[in-house]
Amino acid sequence: MENQKGNSNLKAIVIVLLLLLLGSLGYIFKMSTDAEIVRTELKTTLTEKESVMKDLQELKATYDAAIAENTSMSEELIKERDKVVALMADLKKSNGDVSKFKSQLTALQNNMKVLIAENDNLKKQNVTLTVQRDSTRVVLVESKKANEVLTSLNSELSKTVEKGSVLTVLNTKGAAFKVRSSGKQIETDKASRADILKVSFTIAENKIAKSGTKLYYVQVIDSENNVVGEKKVENFGTKSLTYSFTTNVKYDNKTVNVTEDLAGSKFAKGTYTVNVFDKAELVSRTSFSLR
Fold it and tell me: Which of 27, 50, 76, 193 shows the greatest Cβ crowding within 10 Å of its Cβ?
C-alpha cells in the first residue's frame, strides 16, 4: 500500500516536472520567436533606413549638379538641398520608424522634380538668349567692320574730292615790255628798255571746286635774288611770304586767264623767277631772262 502511494507521489512529481519543462520550453520558444521577430523588424528597419538614405544622397547629388550650373534659380536650389542635408542628419541619428522619413523624402523628391524642370527650362532659355546674343554680336561686329570700311572709303573719297577740288594753275609766263607814249606795249628781252614786267597764268576748269573770288600771291625774283615790286610780307602760321603783288580772280569753275603788269625801272640783267602762291603753297613757277 505504501509502495503504491510512493509511486503515486513520484508520478505526480514527474508530471509536475514535465509540465514545468514543457512550460519552460514553451517560454523559451516564445522568447526565441519574439527575438527573431525583433531581429527581422530591426533588419527591415535598417534596410529601409539605408534605402531612404541612398535616395536622399541621390537627391542631394542632383541638387549639387544643378547648383553648379549657376543659374538664376541657384538660391532656391540651395535651400532645397539644405532641407535634404538636414533630413539626412536626422535619419542618421534615428533608430526608430523610418516611415516619416519616407513621406518627407517623397515630398522632397516631388519638389525636386518641379525645381529641376524649371531649371532645365531656364537653361534652354539661356541657351536661346546666348545664341541670339552671339548672333547679335556677330551682326554688330560685321556692322562695325562695314562702318569702318565705309568710313575709310568716305575719308579716301573726301581726300580725293579735296585733292580734286584744288585749282590747277598752268601756263605761267613772265616777260618784259617797253611801253610807248601811245600806251602800246612791245615785248623786249633787254633790261635797259623794259618798263614793266608782265606775268600771266591760267586757272584750269574744275567742276567740283568751290567758286568765288580767289586770291593769289605773285613773287618775282630778279637775278640778284631780290623780290621785285611791292615787297610786302604775309604770314601764314609759321611761314612768311614776301611777294611782289596780289591778284584777285573771280572764278566760276571755268578756265580763266590772268594777266598782271608789274611796273619798275632799271631792271637788272639776268634770269628772273616767277612764283605763284595760293596762300603759302607754291602752285606754279616759271622763269625768263633779260640781257
Answer: 76
Name the CA radius of gyration of the chain, rounded: 60
Angle 231-235-239 from CA coordinates, rounded to 5°: 105
pTM of the predicted protein model: 0.49
Q: Mean pLDDT throughout 74-81?
A: 88
Number of Cβ within 10 Å of residue 62's Cβ equals 19
Task: Copy the grid coordinates of residue 187.
Answer: 615785248
Residue 224 has pLDDT above 60, yes or no: yes
The whole-angstrom separation of Cα 67 and Cα 108 is: 16
DSSP three-state, residue 185? strand
Among the CATH numbers 2.60.120.620, 3.90.1150.10, 2.40.30.170, 2.60.40.10, which is that of 169-290? 2.60.40.10
Q: How far apart are CA 216 and CA 206, in angstroms?
A: 17
Give DSSP secondary structure letters for 242-256: EESEEEEEEESSS-E
- The C-alpha cell 569753275 sits at 253
CB 270 within 8 A of CB 223: yes
Domains of the chain, by residue range, sit at 2-119, 169-290
Query: How many whole angstroms separate alpha carbon 14 and alpha carbon 2?
Result: 18
Q: What DSSP state is assigned to residue 189?
A: -
- 77: how many CB neighbours lie within 10 A of its CB? 23
Q: Which residues contact 277 (CB under 8 A, 6 or more apart)?
A: 216, 217, 218, 219, 241, 243, 283
Please state the rounded mean pLDDT for residues 160-165.
58
From the number of C-beta atoms within 10 Å of its C-beta (0-12, 13-18, 19+), residue 63 rates as buried
Q: pLDDT of 165-187, one tens digit each?
A: 689 999 999 999 999 999 999 99
**88-107 pLDDT per residue, tens:** 888 888 876 778 888 888 88
